[in-house]
Amino acid sequence: MEWLIAPFEVSFVQRALWGGLLVSCLCAIAGTWVVVRGMAFLADAMAHGMLPGIAIAALLGGNLLVGAAFSAGAMALGVSALTRNARLSADIGIGLLFVGMLSIGVVIVSRAQSFAVDLTGFLFGDVLAIRDRDLVYLVVALLGAAAVAVLGHRAFVALAFDPRTAHTLGLRPKVAQVALVGLITLAIVASFHIVGTLLVFGLLIAPPAAAMFWAHRLPVIMAVAALLGALATVTGLLISWHLGTAAGATIAAVAVALFFVSASFSALRSRIRFSGRKFGPLALVAVLPLVGCGADRVADDAESAPHGYVEGAEEAAEPQPRLVLADRESGAVRVLDLLSERVTDLAPAAGVTRVAADGRYAYLATPEGIRIVDTGAWLVDHGDHVHYYKAPIRDVGVYSAGPVIAAAADPSVAALVLDSGDTALLDRAALDAGSVPDRGAHAGGLAVPSGEHTVVTRRTDGRVEVRGRDGAVVAAVAEPCPEPRGTAQTRIGVVFGCADGALVVNVREGSATATKIAYPRPVPQTERAVEFRHRPGSATLAARAGERGTWLLDARRKTWTFVETGPVLATNTAGEGAPLLTLSADGVLHAYDPATGTERTRKQLVAPGSAADIVVDSSRAYVNDPGGRKVWEIDYSDLRIARTFALDIAPALMAEAGE
């Protein structure tokens, strides 16, 4: 074992080892967010942007770390300023600064040839030259990065998955973005002396990217990334000692190699899992400390799978949105994959009148009952991370019940709101297995799943109850909901439309709190909000208000806003701060300012009188055009047409799943 121990008996190698371990932890914290947010280009640009500061500091005989910090700070401020320009995309601003800062650095170096040899070390690192005070700087930087990561965790998570959600939750996404850029800057500046400005990018990206093959929870990814970075440091120093290679470059190369090893092993593991065979002893030993949805369970065999996994499903790295489209006249049904743009034909549903979706399943109201279609796309939300799945599209069967007007679900139950005011509760596990129950439980009113319970508003007297999965009442809500019509499932609770406003019910561990949001003025029956439309999970809801206008309900702020739009065919909104979208009878799509109610812009989209609808997800709005036999994909910020999907049917009915 002399070859393993001898290098680390030398004091400068010991300092290099400690420096590499500290940098591994620092880069694991910042690099995880770089990978999750897809900010690799920004991180690379930041690493190159330090060159002018380092060069100037070298020329003046100053501290290189201070020069790097000033240069990186200027780069960060420039990125923040340019990305605020709505006319420039973020990558254009970053790219311009990247080239500009790198050019300035090269110009400075070219005018000071006496420093060229020394600057080579700054570009590629000199880990073996680490001094004791450098270790102190790294410890301080690591503590600072850990503090930022802990304090900003909730904001960073919300920002990573949906900036609008972060804004809705009051987490100040703009401040969180600045803090995240600062965290990345800190990691790059503190690490450049180890592997250099050109190689720090590899150590920042490779270990977290490799860790994502072994874990899914963010804290676990950071821990695994730190371990992989430490392994790269030890291995790189050993190789450098025995083969005489550059230490910093060797560490970065080993880190990248660990990524490819992890990717290959993950592919092999998936192939073994999907073939139904168990892991071999070697794979089990390797995976045991890391596998799973975090570290909260241990995989014993191939039947262990991430939460939400269904046999035959494939986990994806991003949402798999799909539109279910139906032709009223012919009954033709199509499923449009919004990523691949592939259209899947399903058996016709004669007499279809409505389509509703619960995130995975689409429910088509037909004369023979509710036809259930598995769109093969869904997500499982764990709060700090989300799993996305895709599977083959299939017809599940027909459930014998009246027409469905809305649907909501959780992993245990699917709640189908019927036009009678009742709700059918179907076993979600049975649907996942491909069968439709002969009979489902009926709630006796409007019902929406929430927190492993079901919130029910009884249609007879408006009483609100929280029921367990066995149907037993576990809590009662004091606030009634008279004449309940309309439901919504949001992140802050279940929303019911009532004769006197809206009722928001929040369920936690079997207990419930309720808040009534009364209309701002007496509202006639014809102007009630009875059908809420919104982006999945959003707490800002839109609803038609008779012939006069549209309601905008902010369930978080507990306010109603009436927008005098006139009669509309459809309405929707992407969430707080996003415009209110309406489609008028003349086929014009309108965008209204949610705060003032003034019209921002409009676009003639479909033929007048078309039975069109609007659905909204986290990135786009979709409008079906039956007369033109197409679906429009709209950027709801300015009503710009992003894509047009031509179809062979008249898509009069539309619903979205997979978001």
What does this structure look like?
With 659 residues, the chain is of the alpha+beta class. The protein has 15 helices and 34 strands. The chain has a 4-stranded antiparallel β-sheet, with no helix packed on it. The protein has a 4-stranded antiparallel β-sheet with strand order 5-6-7-10, with no helix packed on it. The chain has a 4-stranded antiparallel β-sheet with strand order 11-12-13-14. Strand 11 and strand 12 form a beta hairpin. The longest helix is centred in the N-terminal third of the chain and has 39 residues. The two termini are 54 Å apart.
Keywords:
659 residues, 34 strands, alpha+beta, 15 helices, four-stranded antiparallel β-sheet
Largest sheet: 4 strands, antiparallel
SS elements, strand count: 34
- What gyration radius follows from the Cα positions, in whole Å? 28 Å
Tally of alpha and pi helices = 15
Kindly name the structural category: alpha+beta
First-last Cα distance: 54 Å
Shape: elongated
Average pLDDT for all residues = 82
Percent of residues in beta strands?
25-35%
Helix content, binned percent: 25-40%
At a glance:
The protein is an alpha+beta fold and 659 residues long. It has 15 helices and 34 strands.
Task: Please outline the helices and strands.
Elements: H1 2-5, H2 11-37, H3 40-49, H4 51-60, H5 64-83, H6 90-110, H7 116-124, H8 132-151, H9 153-161, H10 163-168, H11 173-211, H12 218-243, H13 247-274, H14 281-287, E1 314-316, E2 322-326, E3 333-337, E4 343-346, E5 354-357, E6 361-366, E7 369-374, E8 377-381, E9 386-390, E10 394-399, E11 404-409, E12 413-418, E13 423-427, H15 428-432, E14 441-442, E15 445-450, E16 453-458, E17 464-467, E18 473-477, E19 487-490, E20 493-498, E21 501-508, E22 511-518, E23 540-545, E24 549-554, E25 559-563, E26 568-573, E27 580-584, E28 588-592, E29 599-604, E30 614-616, E31 621-625, E32 630-635, E33 640-646, E34 653-657
Antiparallel strand pairs: 1-9, 2-3, 2-34, 3-4, 5-6, 6-7, 7-10, 8-9, 11-12, 12-13, 13-14, 15-16, 16-17, 17-18, 19-20, 20-21, 21-22, 23-24, 24-25, 26-27, 27-28, 28-29, 30-31, 31-32, 32-33
Helix pairs in contact: 2-8, 2-11, 2-12, 3-5, 3-6, 3-11, 4-5, 4-6, 4-7, 5-6, 5-11, 7-11, 8-11, 9-11, 11-12, 11-13, 12-13
